[in-house]
Q: What sequence folds into this?
């Protein structure tokens, strides 16, 4: 049983996740709506837009992990939340004054990407400190809170045509501002440093280096690369363009697809939490890569909109388990001195791989259409999973925190 102070820290930690992820869900839909629907970008251009918007994650996540291992995370997260609330206010003002250009909308996405690049590894580094011995359960709760909060944000953004884009952007800024107070309630202090510090370049690559020389972490990372790059491209580009090109939908339909994905993810995480996790996280991770790919295949056959939503929901069911197992393996196996950097390296692919996936998916849609492009994430994820199994079998890996 956790100490009451630790339980309180865990509650504030989950609240901090929520006050970041609700604005993140709003941003995901608003960028897609403004660029793909309002400005009617072509598939290739929209893929590049999403790539550029996600690029800060790819470029600065390792830096974010390095910083998080050296600063007071509580104060750092307060600062990041304050930065995150500024751009929605600026964009809302510009739209209120008569409209915003593609460049300003892209800047809105880039600034939030920078906030994410530094805040995500900071929260990952804090997780083990608030979880105590219940690492797998806290990972599940954190991911569940992440997707539930993101779903709330996406639902709010889906009302942009009714409430107005200015109102939605101001709501985003207000929730980000609330996150400043929430972050002030988190545990303070720095992570323990048990290894000598080297050059900045070697320190930035320390997480990747440890993953590369640790077989189980390396195998897990290969699977996570497939999820981040190929499934990330599907989430960022293929979903909104499928809604637009196949079903002639708008902001509400894009939001509905994202909500179905989040609902599936939440349901599987709730199941995991209720049963106390799984004994063999590696086996569950591998199996869910195959079931996630199977869920996407019907979209390539030209299914109706309700079936498209069902496919996205089933895809979310599989990814909820897959993401939880991937992060559980990393959290349990990573040493405390490298915690944030190793988790940043994981996020580099699971989230930061989105820019590469967005670009490839946009180009694939431009070349073969939405239906044909569905095969890209399916084949890519299967290839990464098979490569992982060829280097190290995670099937028999046991969890240290299975209840």
A:
């Amino acid at each position: 049983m956790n100490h009451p102070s630790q339980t309180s820290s865990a509650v504030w930690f989950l609240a901090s996740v929520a006050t970041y992820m609700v604005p993140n869900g709003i941003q995901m839909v608003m960028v897609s709506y403004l660029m793909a629907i309002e400005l009617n970008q072509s598939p290739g251009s929209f893929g590049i837009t999403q790539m550029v918007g996600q690029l800060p994650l790819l470029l600065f996540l390792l830096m974010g992990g390095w910083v998080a291992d050296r600063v007071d995370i509580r104060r750092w997260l307060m600062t990041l939340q304050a930065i995150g609330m500024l751009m929605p206010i600026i964009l809302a003002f510009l739209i209120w004054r008569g409209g915003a250009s593609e460049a300003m909308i892209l800047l809105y996405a880039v600034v939030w990407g920078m906030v994410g690049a530094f805040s995500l590894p900071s929260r990952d580094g804090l997780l083990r400190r608030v979880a105590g011995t219940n690492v797998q359960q806290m990972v599940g709760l954190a991911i569940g809170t992440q997707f539930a909060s993101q779903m709330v944000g996406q639902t709010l953004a889906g009302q942009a045509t009714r409430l107005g884009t200015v109102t939605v952007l101001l709501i985003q800024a207000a929730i980000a501002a609330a996150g400043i107070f929430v972050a002030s309630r988190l545990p303070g202090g720095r992570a323990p440093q048990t290894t000598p510090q080297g050059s900045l370049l070697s320190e930035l690559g320390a997480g990747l280096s440890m993953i590369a020389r640790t077989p189980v972490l390396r195998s897990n990372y290969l699977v996570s690369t497939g999820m981040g790059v190929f499934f990330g491209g599907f989430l960022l580009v293929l979903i909104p363009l499928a809604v637009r090109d196949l079903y002639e939908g708008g902001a509400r339909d894009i939001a509905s697809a994202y909500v179905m994905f989040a609902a599936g993810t939440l349901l599987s995480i709730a199941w995991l939490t209720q049963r106390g996790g799984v004994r063999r996280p590696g086996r569950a991770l591998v199996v869910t890569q195959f079931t996630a790919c199977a869920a996407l295949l019907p979209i390539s056959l030209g299914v109706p909109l309700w079936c498209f939503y069902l496919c996205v929901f089933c895809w979310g069911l599989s990814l909820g388990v897959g993401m939880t197992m991937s992060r559980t393996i990393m959290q349990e196996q990573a040493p405390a001195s490298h915690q944030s950097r190793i988790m940043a390296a994981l996020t580099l692919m699971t989230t930061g791989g989105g820019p590469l996936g967005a670009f490839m998916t946009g180009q694939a849609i431009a070349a073969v259409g939405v239906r044909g492009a569905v095969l890209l994430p399916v084949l890519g994820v299967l290839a990464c999973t098979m490569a992982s199994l060829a280097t190290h079998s995670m099937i028999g890996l046991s969890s240290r925190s299975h209840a």
